[in-house]
Amino acid sequence: MNYTLAPNTPPAIPLDATVLVTGVSGYIGSHVADQLLLAGYRVRGTVRDEAKGETVRELFAGKYGNDRITTVVVADMSIPGAYDEACQGVSAIAHVASDVSFTPDPNAVIPGTIAGAINALSAAAKEPAVKRVVFTSSGVAMVIARVNEEFTITTSDWNDSAVEKAWAPPPYEPERSLAVYAASKTQAERAMWAFMREKKPGFVLNAVLPDVNMGTILSEKLSVSSGGSVKATYEKGEVGGVVEWLGPQWMVDVQDTARLHVAALIDPDVEGQRILAFAHPFNWNDVLACLRKLDPGKSLPDDIEGLGRDLSRLDNGPGAELLKKFGRSGWTSLEESVKNNAGL
Hints:
single chain, alpha/beta, 7-stranded parallel β-sheet, 39% helix
């Protein structure tokens, strides 16, 4: 990846500046840090405990040097001022940290997610050096995939139906979990844009909205989230409960998601945007087909009957153009993502 901008076009944040990456020990957060370090920036990452911080530092110090990566413990992002100290002296923030517990109780997830997002912006507003903030939103902040139904997704869409379902009266049954997660992303992102309108701080906010992330796992010691599903299918030869929570929808390579975060932080032309990280529609039979092609002798499950397809339409061109602007050919293919994810 070549993060060089056009001649005489300085990046929105200066090279060698420090970027705060919240949730740096997560699947996406670790890749955002990796791409920022590759682009020539220093990273200060937040973790929930020191053990995770040590793992992150060990992962990146050997590749980029001990002076390029530091970590700070933020045990609870919802506490007022949670990021104030961590933000001191940084030039940008990638707010990746999120509640991925998939707890069905909205009271346990949504208020804390909103508070964490606003705390990141409040900390940025107190640090004059901050010029950019990027928020890791999600495709489910717009819509939850609907199988075998044609519909259009745009960057003006908000998942109001998930918010309504999430906050419906109890009991809070497990099937509510996805709606609660979607509502947390929807409400947190909306709160961030409202903050920008009302407070008018001296920095730019962008958001990246990925669907299912696949691809390289940087460390088995860190959270692998959706990235663990392909690897488990390949190594164990079974799909288990994967299909129940990774039904037909769109996928994106996690490195592309991270690259778009970097673009949102450094490209002066990207301001106030919701960037869709949707590469290719897929279902789990497509993943199985890729694995069979990559390792013909491997014993893998048969195709799953009745999966259906995500027939949604959307414009993923702007994200692809940003990737091309910084040296990629466009979106990483499903097959390449599966290959990297399985370690083949």
